[in-house]
Design brief:
This protein has 2 domains: 17-119, Pseudouridine synthase I, catalytic domain, N-terminal subdomain (Alpha-Beta Plaits), CATH 3.30.70.580; 122-254, Pseudouridine synthase I, catalytic domain, C-terminal subdomain (Alpha-Beta Plaits, 2-Layer Sandwich). Strands 1, 2, 3, 4, 5, 6, 7, 8, 9 and 10 form a 10-stranded mixed β-sheet that branches. The longest helix is centred in the first third of the chain and has 13 residues, at 42-54. Helix 3 packs across helix 4. It has 275 residues and is α+β, with helices and mostly antiparallel strands. It has 5 helices and 10 strands, in the order βαββαβββαβββααβ. The radius of gyration is 19 Å and the shape is globular.
């Protein structure tokens, strides 16, 4: 969700095809999605497995860069290859090579102009909170822990103020390089089932750490430490200090990436975008 390089429209080399894969991963053991010089990343593990499977070096392009400790249920990425492996067989091939905290679920061939990042039309994120006194041992890496009672109804009411098209400048952590901070949210919902409090957010694009800042602010609202008008004030002022802390990475999941149907037929008719 942080800054990404400029748009470069590149078609696959002659004699190759472009393949789109959908992957899930537990991000606990990784320094994020993107390659790192001195730490293991999800991208590195996938590229090494693909290179072994195809017999040639493979570079992948993901729809979103998740940070260290962040998880994914529906991350997508594309790559170019001259391998004879049918696209729909990649999950079977790669899952025999990958560690158990990374799974490939779907594969399909896409047009040569398709781009996993620049053609997205929306993303869904899920943020999970264990709201029990002593936390959870089994899901400790998959949710944040808040030991004091949260008012999920107050959190949900506050979340509704985020819906629509706004300038979310206050919702970006330092280090973000987005060309515009205007975003449209179509879903912002907080629910409780027992000790589990869940935030769902969906929008056209997200700023660096935006969902974790929303989640951290909602936790403070749920604890009664911040008013329910916090988001309205932050949208008006553009001041990051008007919001709460950035919530822990472990609670965040990239749940789904959306593409317009035309992206799979004729990507050239779609205007590419930058987050």
């Amino acid at each position: 969700m942080n800054g990404l390089p400029p748009i470069v429209k590149e078609r696959p080399p002659e004699g190759t095809r472009r393949v789109l894969l959908t992957v899930s991963y537990d991000g606990t053991a990784y320094a994020g999605w993107q390659w790192q010089d001195n730490a293991l990343s999800v991208q590195q593990v996938l590229e090494e497995a693909l290179s072994r499977a195809t017999g040639a070096p493979v570079t992948i392009t993901g729809a979103s860069r998740t940070d260290a400790g962040v998880h994914a249920l529906g991350q997508t990425f594309h790559f170019d290859t001259d391998s004879s492996i049918p696209p729909e067989k990649y999950p079977f091939v790669l899952n025999t090579m990958l560690p158990r905290d990374i799974r490939v679920h779907q594969g399909r061939q896409v047009p040569p102009d398709f781009h996993a990042r620049f053609l997205t039309c929306g993303k869904r994120y899920t943020y999970r909170i264990c709201n029990s006194r002593h936390g959870t041992a089994l899901r400790r890496n998959l949710c944040a822990h808040v030991p004091l009672p949260l008012d999920a109804e107050a959190m949900d009411r506050a979340a509704q103020t985020l819906l629509g098209r706004h300038d979310f400048a206050a919702f970006q952590a330092s280090g973000g390089t987005a060309k515009t901070t205007v975003r449209t949210l179509t879903l912002a919902q907080v629910t409780r089932v027992g000790d589990d409090v869940t935030l769902l957010v969906e929008g056209d694009a997200f700023l660096y750490n935006m969902v974790r800042i929303i989640a951290g602010t909602l936790m403070e609202i749920g604890l009664g430490r911040r008013g329910g008008d916090a988001f309205s004030r932050a949208l008006e002022s553009g001041d990051r200090l008007a919001l709460g802390v950035t919530a822990p990475a472990c609670g965040l999941e990239l749940t789904r990436v959306y593409y317009p149907e035309a992206a799979f037929r004729d990507p050239a008719v779609i205007r590419w975008h930058q987050e």
